[in-house]
Amino acid sequence: MSQRGQYLPDGLLLAYYGDDYTGSSAVMEVMTFAGLPAVMFLDVPTPDQLASFSGYRAIGIAGISRSQSPAWMEEHLPPIFHELAKLGAPVAHYKICSTFDSAPHVGSIGKAIELAAPILGGAWHPLVVGAPALARYQTFGNLFAVVAGEGHRLDRHPVMARHPVTPMDEADVLRHLARQTSKASGLVDFVSMKQGRADERLKALISDGAEVVALDVLDEETLAEAGRLMWEHRGERMLAIGSQGIEYALVAHWRKRGLISQEPPAVQASSVERMIAVSGSCSPITAGQIAYAEANGFAALQLNATRAVDAGEWQREIGRATELALRLLGEGKDPLVYTARGPDDPAVADLARAISSSGAHSGAVNDRIGDGLGRLLDATLRESRLKRAAIAGGDTSGHASLALGIYALTARAPIAPGSPLCLAHSEDPAHKELEITLKGGQVGTPDFFCAVKRGGAPGHNGGTRK
Question: Which keywords label this protein (predicted)?
């Protein structure tokens, strides 16, 4: 191993678990485009799969814990954390959303910390959510996000304040976290950072028993300082919690110290004549992207999601949509198959009523929708031999990717922050050269789907989340 303080250690630098599929790809994106190769597995990798990425600097496992209960976490997360621990990376990262999506009953970040800390270790656990590249800013522990050029405190965010599952009514990240865990916490604020007192403050917090320490990030200076605090105080190993702000901060510090190149390697993908996109997102941002795509050559095709309450009816609906998608491709169009255009689409209320009247479990129906979109995508790709696709929606991305038989992704080119164009790794010959992007509901500017088609060229499409 190289000497600490002068060079980066040889081998693996980072191991991570992402609490949803779209957000997981964001870590891979930051590391890869900083010149540090990274891979994201869609499940715990086999030894052979892991061996095929020997020499990579970051290895991650995408998961679904953001949408799961504490009981589910207790059953499923510890085995994954033990697998991450075996990798021996100096930093292990539990990756969460940059809007801190969580609640005591679902996606509990506090519960995840309680389960991960004894396995992944560390004398303290940094919490970094802010990331200027994502227009996420934390000051005095309060999280802010920019939407359409306007900044919002998180509890007044136009989307997150009324999120249907995890509405954010508290912008102070440590106050929000305290609802989910009794672990002691503290804050290194940006004033301490800018006055050169961050180390003193961190040591005092640890001495007083703080286990989770939030680090303010509001500009490039505090970003690099957060990275320095993590890297220089990591000990033999450290569990960190946060958005891809963890990686942005580490990369900023490494660049400042001259440990990696100042300029990221130039990357760009080629444009394609045809592609297909599927969306299970109800975000207003995705709705705007669907409208933009439709106005610029994509053919929008809406599924009747109410049929997902019955497995047989949903199978027929997916078959119908698959035939239509193939017909559209034959006509020279790019199909974009979706379930709803934003939270106010009548389809959202129709689905809720259908679930209620049928007695079906909402989680099972949502899983069925994601799986169905994946099977539609799989069948269309096989028949058309297309090599580029996009999936919108966090839960949808997970189910659909698994339905495609993909076991890993590596980042190929930037599209929007948190949603790179990726190369799919699959043992199925039909998908071995597939390029795909997984998009969270709040990610990207209006031309997102068009940017995927053109490979991100000529520049990096802006984005907002994950």
Answer: ATP-binding, Carbohydrate metabolism, Kinase, Nucleotide-binding, Transferase
- Tell me: pLDDT of 320 over 60: yes
Which pTM was predicted? Answer: 0.90
Number of domains present in the structure of the chain: 2
Whether the per-residue pLDDT at 140 is higher than 50: the answer is yes
Domain of residue 190 covers 14-256
Task: Report yes or no: 271 and 415 within 8 Å, Cβ to Cβ.
Answer: no
Tokens of 122: 């560390």
Does the residue 385 lie in any domain? Answer: yes
Measured between alpha carbons, how far is 294 from 336 in angstroms, rounded to an integer? 8
Q: What is the pLDDT of residue 7?
A: 78
Helical spans, DSSP H, in 121-279 = 173-178, 190-194, 198-207, 220-232, 245-256
Query: DSSP 3-state assignment of 413?
Result: strand
CATH of the domain at 159: 3.40.50.10840
69 and 139 inside one domain = yes
Segment holding 320, helix H or strand E: helix 311-330
Task: For residues 33 and 57, give the distance between their C-alpha atoms in angstroms, rounded to a whole number.
Answer: 12
